[in-house]
Amino acid sequence: MIEKNKMMKEGNSPMGSKKGQVAIFVIIALAIVCIILLVLLYPRIKISVAPEIFNPEEFLRSCIEGEVKERINILASHGGYENPTGYIIYKGEKIKYLCYIKGYYKTCVVQEPMIKSVMERELERALKTRINTCAANLKSEYERRGFSVNMGAVNSDVEIAMDKIKVNFVVPMKISKGETTKTFEKFSVEIKSKMYDLLMITTSIIDFESTYGDSEITLYLQYYPNLKIEKVLYDGSRIYNVSDVTTGESFVFASRSLVWPPGYGVVDVA
Amino acid sequence: MLHKMGGVKKSKEMKRKVHLILGIGIIFLFGILASCFAEAQELTVCCEKTTSGFWCQNVPSSECDKNFREAPTSCEATSYCKQGVCYDSNEGICAEKTPQVVCNNNGGLWAEKAPAQCELGCCVLGDQAAFVTLVRCKKLSAFLGLKTNFKQQIKNELSCIMSVRSQEKGACVYDFEFERLCKLTTREECERATNKSLKDAQFFPGKLCSAEELGTKCGPTRQTTCIPGRDEVYFVDSCGNPANIYDASKLTDKEYWTNIKDKTEVCGAAKSNVNSKTCGNCNYLLGSYCRAAEKNNMPSYGEYVCADLNCYNTRNGKNYRHGESWCVFNDKENSVGARYYKHICINGEEVLEQCADFKQHVCEESKIGDFSQAACIVNRWQDCIFQNRTEDCENSDKRDCKWLNGKCVPKIAPGLNFWGGQEATAVCNQANKVCKITKEKSLISGTKESGPCADIKSWLKAQLDYCSSLGDCGVKINWIGNPGTSKGYTLKEGKWKS
Description:
The complex is a heterodimer of chains A (270) and B (498). By secondary structure, chain A is of the alpha+beta class. Helix content of chain A is 43%, strand content 28%. Chain A has 3 domains: 2-49; 56-77 and 118-192, no CATH class; 87-113 and 195-256, no CATH class. Chain A has 7 helices and 10 strands. With 498 residues, chain B is an alpha+beta fold. Among the domains of chain B are: 2-41 and 423-495, no CATH class; 43-81, no CATH class; 168-308, no CATH class; 325-378, no CATH class. Chain B has helices at residues 12-41, 100-105, 134-143, 157-165, 187-196, 390-393, 423-428, 456-469; strands at 2-6, 44-49, 55-60, 70-71, 83-88, 93-99, 109-111, 121-125, 128-132, 150-151, 169-176, 179-186, 202-205, 224-226, 233-236, 242-245, 288-292, 304-308, 325-329, 340-346, 349-354, 361-368, 371-378, 401-404, 407-410, 433-442, 446-450, 491-495. At the A-B interface, strand 3, helix 5, helix 6, helix 7 and strand 8 of A face helix 1, strand 3, strand 5, strand 6 and strand 17 of B.
């Protein structure tokens, strides 16, 4: 401001004098310094300018997540199978017996000692089509981004682990653009889930059912505050609904163990 | 059916015994006949798999899946269906009472008796513990990113839990890539890390990672978190370590961010602090637990509060704590179709669990302090009618019976399948009674009646009580309160011919 007033008093245009030019250079220099400082102090500005980094695992996760959740819900509502054998129909749904005995007064025989492995197999089978589609979509996405892609046969495996469901896409893939080449063997996608805990509780309930003929659900509440277990007696069988109150996920299964007949049960023994 | 007849007086005791023997005889005769009939139809065999998809069931041969094995014997006597322990080597879990074929088909290792792999020990997981097998311990440790710490010498669950409770906690300070970092852990974990992965880690007992004196890059924040296995809401430091229990008034208190405080030393001790905006000292036993806050009930800092797990104004009008259970009986005067229910308060919800139908289970409730606990237990009524002495009848160690008008009857009358089969008729027929009244004619006072049923009204009442206590017999109402379509008994009069 002082500089400007002085120039006005002298009756000259600021552009017309050397001092004015120097002043302009100083202002421009200051502006450049300010811009550099802004860029350095606010890295976000820099990021927004930088080109988008493509994350293949994130791409696959967004492709498969919805399907995994849908499929696991279907499997979990039928005792781990999409289309179970050895089931009871309850509220129109086939519920798999994980422990069963025909007749009265006896404890049940374990039908599924490793329900987690069963569910992993069933989930892998149910996701197969979607996994192939997602792998093909990934190839297309790379091609859309100007890469040439060489992709091998698609395989997969599913693991139900603590706090997550892990889907491994075994996809040998070689992508190249110009002189850059990158090779992938597999992609791992993780989806948050409490299914592992529910299956472990289920295994424990089956153990109680086969040993004592029933289970005491309040025992589990002492150790698992986020757990809810509902037990319904239906036609001599028990339908269990084991759920996590924080995520809303649930696992439903049936058991028929230590059934008491009406009366003495000496007539009409099933 | 009750019969009233005039005639000779007989011994009451003798008659009762005859009736009992006849009644029981009829029941077992039906039983024998039914089973003989069934056996004549088809013998049961051991099916490796049934047509319905069940493994190892003793059923008629026609129900066996012909693609699998079957043997004319009990499943326990076969090699393929023999029950034993199935060991899952991936998860380190042992399942008992599993048939060999089921275990092998699933890729498990079957053994008649529990193998050495099934031996339990104490698995230390940071400041928590689990009483599991070695393989399970490895699995859990891997999930939590911890080194396996399995103590085989600890042989019971209680000792296992107690062993980690006494562990000293503090700040484990270490240098990593020219930075001074810190992890809140136990002395044992810190020393273990020093030996294996971290060099020169130093343990400061009782200190938080945010303590200024430690000179780490970890400092106080306004963030809170829930920790698995812990009831309370905790402050979090800038390195992600949990600090002390959330107390809004201590947000800028240096001392509170320096030393580890016990739950009894901080805000709201011995209270549930349900939905408190300022205090996260939740207490699971009092019905509160750390959970994400609802949008309309956010705390002053962070996103977690002590959620209310208790149940209020339940169906019986009372309040219950999380985990409490109590009995509900929908009975109206020992009605037909009634059953016992066990109600449980779980996470603020009243959940009901039916006891076995036909009143084969009854619900029993007791209290530990003021904590209510209920259980469905077996109704042991079956041998009541065999008891002749009051002390045998009312021996609650052996049976659930009561002494009624000189007879032993079930305390809770069982339900009967009266709409199918003959058993209900056989049971109820035990209450049929012939009672003789002697009539003496006198010239002065007219006819005089004597005998055990001379007072027919009180005799009839006693007989009807006995009848209805045997099961779904006699005069009854159903569980919604409607009476039966018939009277429930008949009274016939006749003349005794000697």
